[in-house]
Design brief:
By secondary structure, this protein is of the alpha/beta class. Helices cover about 30% and strands about 20% of the residues. The protein has three domains: about 1-110, Rossmann fold; about 125-295, CDP-glycerol glycerophosphotransferase, N-terminal domain (Rossmann fold), CATH 3.40.50; about 300-490, 3-Layer(aba) Sandwich (Rossmann fold), CATH 3.40.50.12580. It is built from 16 helices and 20 strands. It is globular and about 75 Å long. The protein starts with a strand and ends in a 6-residue tail after the last helix.
């Protein structure tokens, strides 16, 4: 039986072996702050692979395993669910045989956030929904990266609505870390507000009231990736998972999104199949609309060279590697690709880097390398080159420029497994993919297509010689991978225009007035 953990249960658990389901340092801290005599867990269960492994919590060693670990339990234990999705977690653990390993009830802990959410849902249960559209982007609050909280498909859809008269009917509200950073946007548009997602657990009742009014009474909730913040929707609320793009990488966690949104948008029927499998959404939940952020590709910023400190040149090649080794809490996928002199794939040595720079200089071409925002920079070369520029995320942030609003200036793009390559595919220009660590990457993370090489819409690069062949082909006008690119373009994009945001709104029946 599933039972809420309360003070009266603790004494009976003090000599039991505890297994906690759901890994979050914040959640664990709340449990042990409230119940300090509860025994430290034997281990933690969490099917999200990014969270698994050895951890240090409260100065003690703790291991996080997937639910398959349940089969190895040889003595009776007590399970405590430390997740806002406790009902889903309970059903999952039942399927994996957890109830056979305990003589007790299965307990769930209601943390501060869950408690407030449920309390406000009760307050608002009979109040009508408002003409309010709520937006959020990026991963959960514990993975905060500056400017990810106002980005991607959610931002593109919001900007379309704000610029095209939808604020006459709808209040548009954003959940961000620091609302004061976005006051200039509130001043620009009527009926637009930014509030902090930290107000979900604020000690200030006025802040909580503002937050939960928006969350509990929004008619539509759009988000890019993070979804736990709206895990207890009312039956009449519509949650839309916009995701962050159409890519090649497999998910590192396999929790299903079927019950975490009402609708999910994709760029094509091909990606409807992929996301149904990878994200666990039903086909009837999926809408083929195109990705709103791809609308930006058709509206590049003006005066981009001076705004982003990019030297003028006759041609530009952009290079956007996905991350292998990340800073902070995101993940470590594969460290081998950066164990070289340059810190970037394929071009391993400074001698090769200098040779590349000299060739680019000779053909009046500038290479713009933009590393992933969370990529560890410690191993990346600090050398300066005349025709190779590292474009930092902070530079884009300072100018408030999403990368898709500069892609149109690229005569060619080099990537590897990043979804930006599928965005750029819309321009039908030369694309290349560095694959020097493809085998390791497939083992560590995996791909949504197999064999992956057949599904990359461009030239394939395994080493420096093939890299230079592609660079020379741009200067010489030899688009040698065009046929493959065009074939995959037709599969990966149902539309080639700047109407994706409009299609999302039309698919949901959202009208201006």
């Amino acid at each position: 039986m599933l039972v809420r953990l309360r003070k009266e249960h603790i004494e009976g658990l003090e000599n039991k072996k505890i297994v906690i389901a759901g890994y979050s340092e914040e959640y664990l801290k709340e449990i042990y702050d409230e119940y300090p005599t509860l025994p430290f867990p034997e281990f933690v269960l969490d099917n999200y692979s990014k969270r698994q492994g050895r951890k240090e919590v409260f100065g003690k060693e703790l291991y996080v395993y997937g639910n398959s670990k349940i089969a190895d339990i040889n003595e009776k234990v007590v399970f405590i669910l430390a997740t806002g999705y406790y009902e889903n977690s309970y059903e999952s653990m039942k399927r994996d045989g957890a109830l056979e390993k305990t003589d007790d009830d299965v307990y769930y802990f209601v943390n501060k956030n869950t408690g407030y959410y449920q309390d406000y849902n009760e307050i608002y249960k009979d109040s009508p929904l408002l003409d309010l559209v709520l937006f959020r982007s990026g991963p959960g609050a514990s993975y905060y990266v500056r400017n990810w909280d106002f980005a991607d498909n959610a931002r593109a859809l919001f900007e379309y609505m704000a610029e095209n008269g939808y604020t006459k009917k709808y209040e548009l509200v954003w959940l961000v870390k620091n609302p004061s950073e976005f006051k200039h946007i509130e001043d620009k548009y009527e009926n637009v507000h930014f509030i902090s997602f930290d107000w979900a657990v604020s000690e200030n009742k006025e802040e909580r009231d503002i937050y939960y009014r928006a969350l509990c009474r929004a008619k539509y909730i759009f988000f890019t990736e993070a979804c736990a913040f709206c895990r207890y929707p009312r039956e009449d609320q519509i949650r839309v998972q916009l995701w962050h793009g159409s890519g090649f990488k497999s998910r590192t966690g396999k929790s299903r999104f079927e019950e975490k949104c009402e609708y999910h948008t994709v760029s094509s029927e091909l990606y409807a199949e992929v996301h149904s499998s990878e994200l666990g959404v039903r086909k009837d939940q999926i809408r083929v609309t195109g990705n709103p952020k791809d609308d930006w590709i058709y509206h590049p910023i003006e005066d981009w060279n001076s705004k982003l400190n990019i030297p003028k040149a006759g041609h530009y090649i952009f290079w956007l590697p996905t991350f292998r080794t990340a800073v902070g809490k995101i993940a470590i996928v594969n460290d081998k690709a950066y164990d070289n002199e340059t810190g970037i794939p394929v071009v391993d040595t400074l001698e090769q880097m200098n040779g590349l720079n000299e060739y680019l200089k000779s053909v009046d071409t500038c290479m713009v390398i933009k590393l992933h925002p969370v990529q560890d920079r410690d191993k990346v070369t600090k050398e300066k080159f005349s025709n190779i520029v590292f474009l930092e995320n902070e530079t884009l942030n300072s100018q408030d420029v999403p990368i898709n609003r500069v892609l149109a200036y690229a005569d060619a793009l080099i990537s590897d497994y990043s979804s930006v390559a599928v965005d750029y595919l819309l321009l039908d220009r030369p694309l290349a993919f560095t694959l020097d660590d493809a085998d390791d990457y497939e083992k560590n993370r995996g791909f949504v297509f197999s064999p992956i090489r057949d599904w990359l819409p461009g030239a394939l690069i395994d080493d420096y010689d093939e890299f230079m062949r592609f660079i020379r082909s741009i200067a010489e006008g030899d688009d040698y991978a065009a046929e493959k690119r065009k074939a995959l373009l037709a599969k990966m994009h149902a539309y080639r225009d700047d109407k994706n945001s409009l299609r999302v709104l039309n698919a949901l029946g959202i009208a201006k007035d």
